[in-house]
Amino acid sequence: MKPTLLLLMATILLSGCDNKNADFAPQMKNYAYLYQFEAIPGKVKSTHQRLFSADDTPIFDVDIAFDGQGCISHVKSIDKAGEITEVTREGDKLTGTENGQDVVVTLNKQCALLKKVTPTMTVDIGYNEQGWVDQISSPASDVKFHLTYNNVGDMTLLSIKKGDEEVSRASAKHDTDAKKISDVVTTVQRNEQSKTVTTQCQYKNDVPFRCDTVTTDAAGQVTDRQYGTIDVTYY
Questions:
Q1: pTM of the model
Q2: Class for domain 3-234, per CATH?
Q3: Which InterPro entries does this entry report, sorted A to Z (predicted)?
Q4: What is the helix (H) or strand (E) element at residue 98, kind and residue range?
């Protein structure tokens, strides 16, 4: 597992949808962290989310489909390098390809992702008592990813450890206005350096339809700008 991938999961913030229902399907936020998309409230059938640089260069593109119970049924994502992940649910498994390799993801009865297996790596996914992903690890690595949440299930800390040593962390401070569900300031610290990722969204019916993200360095200088878009269909 690459630490940069999980840092992306912690800081990638796309836009939202047009739906008055502020409730999330039980596994929606877990899926969002694991497959790098913005969690969408409501009874979502499918969502297409894209992330762009300020000059409109595509960075990430993901299509996700869900069944009527909110279980993930299909994922296809393409990153900036053109690497593709595509899986489809078959019973209690998601099967397909990930960056040119076969991949099998095992799910439990609540449709939570438990284990991902490719020819080169096994990844185990653990959950806390509230049902949120709290650890991602691999038997082949001493690197572990620990996630912490607030009382409404928003991730507030992603800590990456190599053995007992913390090598990186991303801490998130969510907007005090509970209606701004995707506004967040994330501070990333790694190798004695830090950066701040600030995401502010435009909302309709209390749900975001576009989010703009600005990254600044420790001196407050802007180093990157991105924006995200979303299309959503509902049951």
A1: 0.85
A2: mainly beta
A3: UPF0257
A4: strand 93-98
